[in-house]
Amino acid sequence: MTASVNDWQWLYRQLLDRWGVQHWWPAKTPFEVMVGAILTQNTAWSNVEKAIARLQAADLMGVEKILASNDANLESCLHPSGYYRVKARRLRALCAFLQEEGCAELPESLRERGALANLRRKLLQVHGVGEETADSILLYALQLPIMVVDAYTKRIASRLGWCTERVTYAELQRDIESALVPGDVAMRNELHALLVELGKNICRPRRPFCSQCPLRRRCAYGAGQERPGN
Ligand code: SF4
Q: Start and end of every HhH-GPD domain (predicted)?
């Protein structure tokens, strides 16, 4: 990693100046954030919204309700989010975990069941919960200070020349964390949301719109994109 503390803080300021506060995560309750964190794996958010709307219409938005539901009903609700059988199993596993922790009634009370590192370890043991999902739950559902890293973050950081494309989740997370104010949940919330905004709309996988990018003047990849139309 070659990014300094100042680099990440500069990036944060540029993105915030450009797009402002993002008001993440788009959900009505912490449990809905947790459900969304599972359902958003390998699919667009618009598909997650459809699945969540179906869960609500079927009155299944609750830990006990999901655990008591039958497979056909639950899978039919999750259908729009893709991989619906896999996601149904993962959602049940998360709900079983919350129940075991005594958080079925109030899923956000999970944050009182231990320190952040301990909760993260436990979440990573739940079937279907990887690092990005665990950190999304910790940050956006439980309001704990941990940076979420995703494919957008990796692509942007590597194009800026701050890491290689082979950087691991843990390495990139450690690097960004070292630049953030310890304990600042709001800053982590915004930074991840802003990186998603940039990665989705401007720093696309192919033919990024570098001419519209607020990071261009310090971007190694962007400096090579001088041709008209970019
Ligand atoms: S200048 Fe281009 S490559 Fe660099 S971060 Fe912006 S959009 Fe991505």
A: 39-201
* Structure letter (DSSP) for residue 140: I
**Residues of the chain predicted below pLDDT 50:** 228-230
Q: How far is the CA of 203 from the centre of ligand 1 (A)?
A: 5
Which CATH number goes with the domain that contains 173? 1.10.1670.10
Residue 226 pLDDT: 54
Ligand 1 within 6 A of 11 CB? no
**Atom number of ligand 1 nearest to Cα 210:** 2
Q: Is the CB of 154 under 6 A from ligand 1?
A: no
Tokens of 92: 């049940």
CA distance 167 to 144: 24
**Biggest CA-to-CA distance, the chain:** 58
Same domain for 124 and 169? no
User: What is residue 230's predicted lDDT score, i.e. its pLDDT?
Assistant: 44
